[in-house]
Amino acid sequence: IAAGAIPVVGALAGGIDPAVVARGAGGLRAVFGGRARQQEEARLLADPVRELTPVLVAELGRVGDAVPWVVLFLDTYERTAPLLDRWLADLLFSGRYGELPANLVLTLAGQRRLDPARWGDRGRLVADVPLGPFTEAESRQLLHGRGVVAEPVVREVLRLSGGLPVLVSTLAANPGAAGEANATAVERFLAGESDPDRRAAALACALPRRFDEDLVAVAAPTPVPGLYDWLHELPFVVEPHSGRSRYHGVVRAPMLRLQRTGSPQRWTEAHDRLADAFAVRRDAAADGVDPDRLWADEPWRRAALDVLYHRLCARPRTALPDALRAGIEVCGQQPSAARHWARTLVEAGEDADSAVLRDWGRDLLAAVMDHGPRPTAALGLLLTRAELTDTDRAAALVARAWDRFRAGELDAALSDHGRAIAVDPRSERAYQGRSVVLRSLGRYEEALADLDRAEEIAPAWAWAVRERGETYRRMGRLTEALTVLDRAHALDPADAVPLGSRGLVRHRLGRHEEALEDFDRAIALWPEYAWALVRRARVRTALGDPVGALADLDRAEELTPGLAGTEGERGEVYRATGRYEEAVACYGRALAQDPEYAWAHGSRALALEALGRVAEARAELDRALELDPGYGWARAQRARLGAEARGRPGE
């Protein structure tokens, strides 16, 4: 009866045969009744620990003399520590009850570390042994020892258990009893908590991948006072009080399985509530963010992926098309985030036990991880295997075309844009993207024709207008470029790119102060705008601010290391300030990064000329013209050097 009041032991007391207990108690009475006087019996009743512990120590000593090792095991120590901690410390370290045998080992198994206030100064006698899930080899060893050897059954146990020892052991006894195994595991995790509302809330809070106080209120089926703080007292909550707390994966998995199989309707309703809560956060995070750059915004992306996860868990097949459509968007806007999207599909597939989701997620994640930050392979999977609308297919082709363009695969990029237009002739993004590729190939008139079509489809789309301004700039039509870039900026004042392009146009028109203002505003809007930093350095050099110019180039190098253009511009700063040797060295480093950088050859020629190395300067100009026969400035400089040489006596 007394055992029922003891934590942990109380849960087991009901299963003990009372007759066995009675016989044991009778034997104990016989032992002590035959030996003890009335006074000793009184001391035993008043302080049984003080009277019985020396007897235990003496018995351990007797056994220790007869065997190599004596090991005492105390399980579930997080529950019994309040009763046992002080007694064990006295038993082991103070000598209060006598000397223990040297071959005694005490093993405590619990979910928390030992209290450092009581055990901290005894570190040399205490060894922490962290216990994690079984490896596959360890799980197979246990299963084999229990006679479970059929490979299909073994694989299913491995999948369902996740290596959690209690699940492996339970399933080994009855491989088909997944539900019973999950219930057993969850019961172990929540042992000692009798409040049904808290237990239900603890289960429900396993549903979100991470949680804060607001999400706990959404997840819990009924309000529970102090629930958020109580959850953080549970030993399996990781990153407590961080705003992004989570359950340890070993604990969360069986809790999810128990809820999914126990009540599919409650499972769906709970995930719907959580998806709606994350949708509110996602929409709030979108405020002030360019819709074409949402996936690059970390708070928005995190909330959007959580919406996706919970929709997939609630209705895997119904939500899959939207999930694949989101993948096209993330590959187009922020390819480096594609792995987070693919991993979300994998996790939803595992947690919802959906083979379709698992297969899609694993294949997409492999495609993303195998090709680094490039999304081409993942987009290829979507194009060949997914049931996409024409609009979605065109969007996937445009996203892949941009990836190929960034990789310098211009013909492939041109082909993908063409296919996108064939699939969806009203895709303004396909026309705009193809115009950029055509411009890079020097096919300016064709690029302008594509921009005409893009503006017909979307007259107020700022991106098409800005690309027209950039095309005019590269064609040398600076006055027209300035007018168009003014319009692009008016259409979208938050876009940094038109400001950067306009700054360069103004610089070339000799309007350096206005150019500096444009670059300042562009970089304020987009602090990682490396292209604008390099061009602002050029303007600062023209305005006599070499220190500011070098600071801009240092920042650009930090953002995008190893670009030849950044090092070439550094050479320009040194050349403008008369530091010709340093300038020559910078141009050399730029050419080492890009041997076909004709501009660097031309600029190095001027630095060499300033050092009196005229023959080398001519050779640099020859090389520049060899690389770019249309490089008019280099041709003029070579003619000038030739005329000057002819005008000097002896040449």
From TrEMBL:
Gene3D superfamilies: Tetratricopeptide repeat domain
TPR repeats: 462-495, 496-529, 564-597
SMART domains: TPR
UniProt keyword terms in alphabetical order: Repeat, TPR repeat
Key word Disulfide bond present: no
Repeat keyword on record: yes
PANTHER family noted in UniProt: TETRATRICOPEPTIDE REPEAT PROTEIN 6 (PTHR44858), UDP-N-ACETYLGLUCOSAMINE--PEPTIDE N-ACETYLGLUCOSAMINYLTRANSFERASE SPINDLY-RELATED (PTHR44858:SF1)
Protein name per UniProt: Tetratricopeptide repeat protein
Organism, scientific name: Streptomyces rhizosphaericola
